């Protein structure tokens, strides 16, 4: 057999390289110019999610045995007042009407308060409940039944005092929009326990959507398949799910098969991760045509269950969303987030009187029913429930048409339940007027680290390389709060 000449062999190699060369390879090889600079930002993200065989396109799995496998996050958008709900402060009441000492306000920034704002006591009546002796105001009568099922975090701190960035910080670990949300990180790291429903679902109630909108449940630089799927209010929470009346299930299957084949062909040619996300979305939509109608049909629940939650059949509400959240985790959804507005009690239309009373009435009974229902179904041990807003409220009053409270980042209350957290534990303390967290402080990054820990994830190891560095939910911060783990 005649061996090819060296010149012919080199020509063959050059030809092969030319055929296999792509626009991306060309740009990567160019050391100067706009193409190389743009690719420097994209190069880490594109291969990480481009092909089905990529390790980052599949769940990574837990780092160690988890205590929990699902999360229900009850997000009270606007910032509930811990001083009217959970934190009686006799000293604050005794100082009512006095100007806040300059030593408290010097160097501090508030959304609206002037530095000569006066301290505002509370008129609410408190009592201690349960073996834990947790203080609850008369606004939350149903919480009395579950007080010993909850782990109370009474010295939470955050970094951001305006709503949109603060919601972003609480959900994504960063005040900058464009970072992946906690639900997206969990979808990326753990995937879903069901192939018939999304891993991450968002439910909304209240007079409007939360400030920050879709960025709060977005996937950021993670593949788009990990973003939250918002269900709408009303009888049709998922638009365009039902096929046209003249098309059978077999027709739909053939359509999705053909479309999927075309998309996979294009994915193989381009390696575009958004095509992979599109394939996944179409496949999920086809499966949800069979599963979602049954999921959202609350009429299957007993009248006693509907009454316990306070659900009015056919009427969208926070109560209906709480019941729907239980049904979702029961069916394998990894992360369910409920947003309920509006807790922004500055005064005026949103005051600390009737407005606060009404919103507490909307959430108190359904929240307690959710905890009790999860226990009854054997789901609370494996489900983490989180309750809280993006920050708390100031001990100083804000004067509008009526008196309210401004945003406060230095001391507020949240609670967690289930999923291996210590029930009935009171953790954290603020000073005598509720201004500063002084003991057993839990920062937002610590909360995120601890939630991930309970799901079997080391928060320092769940990372994604983007723009030349490894990102994580907790950025470069956060410690697991071992004291609140059972």
Provide key terms for this protein.
nine-stranded mixed β-sheet; alpha/beta; 35% helix; Alkaline Phosphatase, subunit A; 16 helices; 486 residues; single chain; two-stranded antiparallel ribbon
Structure notes:
With 486 residues, this protein is of the alpha/beta class. It has two domains: 6-42, no CATH class; 59-484, Alkaline Phosphatase, subunit A (3-Layer(aba) Sandwich), CATH 3.40.720. The chain has 16 helices and 17 strands. It has helices at 6-20, 23-29, 34-42, 46-49, 82-85, 90-94, 102-105, 143-146, 163-172, 182-190, 249-270, 273-296, 303-309, 318-330, 354-376, 444-454; strands spanning 70-76, 126-129, 134-137, 150-157, 200-205, 229-230, 335-340, 383-388, 392-399, 403-408, 412-417, 426-427, 429-430, 437-439, 442-443, 464-466, 469-471. The strands form five sheets. Strands 1, 4, 5, 6, 7, 8, 11, 12 and 15 form a nine-stranded mixed beta sheet that branches. A hairpin with a 4-residue loop joins strand 2 and strand 3. Helix 2 crosses helix 3 (34-42) and helix 14 (318-330) runs parallel beside helix 15. Mean pLDDT is 87; it is low at 12-57.
């Amino acid at each position: 057999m005649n061996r090819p000449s060296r010149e012919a062999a080199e020509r063959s190699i050059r030809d092969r390289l030319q055929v296999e060369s792509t626009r991306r390879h060309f740009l990567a090889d160019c050391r100067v110019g706009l193409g190389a600079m743009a690719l420097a930002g994209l190069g880490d993200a594109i291969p990480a999610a481009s092909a089905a065989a990529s390790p980052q396109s599949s769940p990574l799995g837990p780092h160690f045995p988890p205590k929990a496998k699902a999360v229900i996050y009850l997000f009270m958008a606007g910032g509930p007042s811990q001083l009217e709900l959970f934190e009686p402060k006799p000293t604050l009441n005794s100082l009512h009407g006095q100007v806040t000492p300059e030593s408290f306000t010097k160097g501090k920034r508030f959304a609206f308060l002037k530095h000569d704002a006066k301290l505002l006591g509370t008129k609410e009546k408190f009592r201690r409940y349960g073996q834990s002796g947790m203080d609850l105001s008369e606004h939350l009568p149903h919480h009395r039944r579950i007080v010993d099922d909850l782990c109370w975090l009474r010295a939470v701190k955050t970094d951001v005092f305006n709503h949109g960035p603060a919601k972003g910080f609480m959900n994504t670990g960063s005040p900058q929009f464009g970072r992946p949300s906690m639900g997206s990180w969990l979808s990326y790291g753990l995937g879903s326990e069901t192939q018939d429903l999304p891993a991450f679902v968002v439910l909304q109630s209240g007079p409007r959507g939360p400030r920050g909108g879709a960025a709060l449940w977005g996937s950021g630089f993670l593949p788009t398949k990990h973003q939250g799927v918002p269900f709408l209010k009303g009888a049709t929470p998922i638009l365009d799910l039902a096929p046209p009346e003249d098309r059978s299930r077999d027709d739909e299957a053939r359509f999705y098969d053909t479309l999927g084949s075309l998309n996979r062909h294009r994915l193989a040619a381009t390696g575009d991760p958004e095509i992979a996300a599109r394939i996944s979305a179409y496949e999920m939509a086809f499966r949800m045509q069979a599963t979602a109608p049954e999921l959202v049909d609350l009429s299957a629940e007993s009248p006693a269950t509907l009454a316990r939650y306070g659900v009015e059949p056919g009427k969208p509400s926070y109560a209906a969303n709480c019941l729907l959240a239980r049904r979702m985790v029961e069916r394998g959804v990894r992360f369910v987030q409920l947003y309920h507005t509006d807790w922004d009690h500055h005064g005026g239309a949103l005051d600390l009187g009737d407005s606060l009373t009404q919103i507490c009435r909307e959430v108190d009974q359904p929240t307690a029913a959710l905890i009790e229902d999860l226990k009854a179904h054997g789901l609370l041990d494996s489900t983490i429930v989180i309750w809280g807003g993006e920050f708390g409220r100031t001990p100083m009053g804000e004067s509008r048409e009526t008196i309210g409270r401004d945003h406060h980042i230095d001391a507020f209350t949240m609670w967690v339940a289930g999923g291996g957290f210590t029930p009935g534990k009171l953790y954290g303390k603020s000073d005598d007027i509720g201004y500063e967290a002084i003991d057993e402080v839990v920062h937002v990054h610590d909360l995120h680290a601890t939630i991930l820990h309970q799901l079997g994830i080391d928060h320092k190891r769940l990372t994604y390389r983007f723009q030349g560095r490894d990102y994580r939910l907790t950025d470069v911060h956060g410690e697991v709060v071992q004291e609140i783990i059972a």
